[in-house]
Amino acid sequence: MKQAFSIIVAAGVALLAALSLGCALAQADPLPSWTDGTAKAAIVDFVARATTPGSADHVAPAERVAVFDNDGTLWAEKPVYFQFMFAIDRVRALAAQNPEWKVKQPFKAAIEGDVDTLAASGEKGLVELIMATHTGVTTEAFGETVADWIAAARHPRFERPYTELAYRPMLELLALLRANGFKTYIVSGGGIEFMRVWTDRVYGVPPEQVIGSSIVTRFDVENGKPVLVREDKIDFVDDKAGKPVGIHKFIGRRPIFAFGNSDGDLQMLQWTAAGDGPRFMGLVHHTDAEREWAYDRDSAVGRLDKALDEARAKGWTVIDMKRDWKRVFAFEPQ
Amino acid sequence: MKQAFSIIVAAGVALLAALSLGCALAQADPLPSWTDGTAKAAIVDFVARATTPGSADHVAPAERVAVFDNDGTLWAEKPVYFQFMFAIDRVRALAAQNPEWKVKQPFKAAIEGDVDTLAASGEKGLVELIMATHTGVTTEAFGETVADWIAAARHPRFERPYTELAYRPMLELLALLRANGFKTYIVSGGGIEFMRVWTDRVYGVPPEQVIGSSIVTRFDVENGKPVLVREDKIDFVDDKAGKPVGIHKFIGRRPIFAFGNSDGDLQMLQWTAAGDGPRFMGLVHHTDAEREWAYDRDSAVGRLDKALDEARAKGWTVIDMKRDWKRVFAFEPQ
């Protein structure tokens, strides 16, 4: 019986170890890059209420849908949207084949790296650059071009890959939600095929949970091989009032958790807020010029004006980046 | 020590019970409604190859994407697509408010239950009925109308709810794939908002895994409440060459497993077949007039002609309903 006794003791020790590990995990801070303020408390409280069986605010796992804007919410968006930087680099790479671009705006500005003129060309300029550089190729070839660029390109201020400009506190938040049975989606005005190449690796968000703006694709058979060709035509603009439309089209459920950072996210937040049961609406307010950038009502990129007023009026959670985030990027010294 | 010994014995018994239950589960036929023929063997073999670690054909779980057409593949589609029956019932329900319909085709035929004239009006007639009866309401109100209809309506031949005309062998196949880490999607020419109301309950396919044809929706605020309004405009036709486009748009991954039943599924099957690694392409061939229907090359609804030739030429799996399915519907006597 000595052996049996040893087995029981060993089992007991293992059980105690498992229990204490469980407690350690339960007690570990899931949001270490967030300061202990009201924003963090609101998130932790919401997740607890939505996931505690028997709670009046309990939400069935299938309905735990969380949506996040991308530019300015999950990664930075200055000096301009990173997809704009990609388009500029594509213009340069294709300039030799398109000599007319040297004297034609906004292509001229792109070739010369004149970001101010480009920014002034606004959404119209961006669309022109994207149409000229993102179309006429197969979806496969386009994906490869994005993958090459995202691996090689460097952000002008931080001189690091753009993907390192993902916000560490938001990566923690995504992980916390997923660990609690939430399905995390990106709902961005950016191009769906630009994002899907790298969102799984960077955010843990797989392609089928990325919603974005798109251009029309056409099924074709080239040399006996079926392909999808990207046409010179906009399919869907997933911004502003387009965001609830995109959510309904792709997910078919109303989110219970939504995070944005600009007026482009207002309707997504309103749509989320209007559902029954517990809701969380959050905004990232860029208040930290030293570690990141400070901007809101007067910014051409990521303008936050009406949504900020509505968030304050309705008690949505507004993250003050400077106050609420201990670290912004993973590469910052601790 | 007697107590300790008892605990060990009890643990041993529990372990043996768990192991034998495991074996019983492993040995149970996951496809009991399928006869033991080449079709069933091809499915079981494919699933084993794709999921066996170390197999040359092993596929990572995230890439185990399986797509299914709906009408004629997962449920019946005769005498006409069931959504057509829904549209007819909606025309009747709304006829009093639209007196002009009494003398205007295809509405007149719908009101009079003249299915032949309706079938002859083809896709154009269907679109007209759908536009007149599926739009101008909020997505929420439309979903409720579908839910009410699907609960109350009865199929003219079988006098049962339409959802009972789901094919039992295909329900088993969906369950087998999901048990093996596949994500099962519907990719249908039918309306996405018509299907999403009931696919989770009937097929175990949640709304976010349903891809279908859609009409444009518009975000609006009515009496302070955000709503999505269904507009009188087609957004996307998820049929024929539209199916690979829809798959790429919604999933962003190429399926490794695809099942259809008509020429409308040909491009989806070609797109699936053209990927690297193990592939499964299947067609349901309706050969059983007694238990269901028999039709292929000459049918207006669910025509199977070119896809049948291509399946035979390329060795895709063609299900002969009469031969390969022991039971078609769950309500059949065993």
Automatic annotation (TrEMBL), chains A, B:
* One GO molecular-function entry: hydrolase activity
Task: Tell me which Pfam families the record gives.
Answer: HAD
- Report keywords, A-Z: Hydrolase, Signal
- From which residue to which does the signal peptide run? 1-28
Per its record, how is this protein called by name? Answer: HAD family hydrolase
